Every structure is written in structure tokens, then in C-alpha cells.
């Protein structure tokens, strides 16, 4: 399944046009006629999506840090949530117990298929 083809896909216009021409010139009963063209279009759309995601997530950590700093300033807090957890004795105790429990019972949370 591919995304809607009516929105712009600048990287894949030729592949989309090829698929439309193939579907217009071949019978609907011959459903395998355009498979290779559709596979090429799917690869192109996948590559386009990967490129867009990389562009969209560029600088994500810096943006996240700026947002977290702005939130802390607005709320008047001095610690981030992670810093708070590192200093919270109850959380540290629970985390230590979880590690010990996982060492003692390593298969505790694994799904058994033949139960």
C-alpha cells in the first residue's frame, strides 16, 4: 500500500506518472502488468520518506533541550526529570530491586511459547 499519490512527491513524480500510464493502458484483469513499475515507485516513496524523516529529525536533540530548558524556566524548576530521578531515593531503591530481581529470575518476563 502506498500513500496518496495526489499530494506532491517531488522525488518520485516520474515513477508515479509511469504507474498511472501503465494502469491506464493495461486491462484491470491483468493485475500483474504493472507490478515492476509499482515496486520501483514503492522503493522511491520509501527512500523519499527516509530522506524526509532525516531532514525532519535533524537537530532534534538541540530542539528538545531548548524546549526542556524553556519548560523548566516557566515552571521555576531547577532539575530536569532525569536529574530528579537520579536523586530520588525511592526510585533508586526500586531500580536496584528490579536489577536484582532480573538477575535472580532472568526469564521472569519472557513469553513462554509452549506453556
Intertermini distance? 37 Å
Based on helices, strands and strand pairing, what is the structural class? mainly alpha
Q: How many β-strand stretches?
A: 0
| Mean pLDDT metric | 86
Based on CA inertia axes, which overall geometry fits?
A: elongated
Strand content: under 5%
What are the low-pLDDT stretches, counting only 5+ consecutive residues below 50?
Answer: none
Question: Percentage of helical residues?
Answer: 55-70%
Structure report:
The relative contact order is 0.07. This protein has 115 residues and is mainly alpha-helical. The chain has helices spanning 13-25, 35-57, 60-75, 81-87, 89-104. α1 (13-25) packs antiparallel against α2 (35-57). The radius of gyration is 26 Å and the shape is elongated. Helix content is 65%, strand content 0%. The model has no long low-confidence stretch (mean pLDDT 86).
Core attributes:
single chain, 115 residues, mainly alpha, 5 helices, 65% helix, 0% strand
Write the layout of secondary structure elements.
Elements lengths: L12 H13 L9 H23 L2 H16 L5 H7 L1 H16 L11
Helix pairs in contact: 1-2
Amino acid at each position: 500500500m502506498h500513500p496518496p499519490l495526489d499530494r506532491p512527491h517531488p522525488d518520485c513524480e516520474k515513477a508515479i506518472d509511469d504507474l498511472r500510464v501503465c494502469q491506464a493502458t493495461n486491462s484491470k484483469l491483468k493485475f500483474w502488468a504493472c507490478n515492476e513499475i509499482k515496486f520501483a515507485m514503492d522503493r522511491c516513496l520509501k527512500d523519499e520518506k527516509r530522506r524526509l524523516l532525516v531532514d525532519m529529525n535533524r537537530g532534534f536533540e538541540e530542539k528538545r533541550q531548548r524546549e526542556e530548558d524553556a519548560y523548566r524556566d516557566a515552571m521555576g524548576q531547577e532539575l530536569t526529570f532525569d536529574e530528579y530521578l537520579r536523586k530520588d531515593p525511592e526510585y533508586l531503591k526500586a531500580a536496584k530491586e528490579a536489577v536484582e530481581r532480573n538477575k535472580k529470575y532472568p526469564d521472569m518476563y519472557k513469553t513462554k511459547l509452549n506453556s
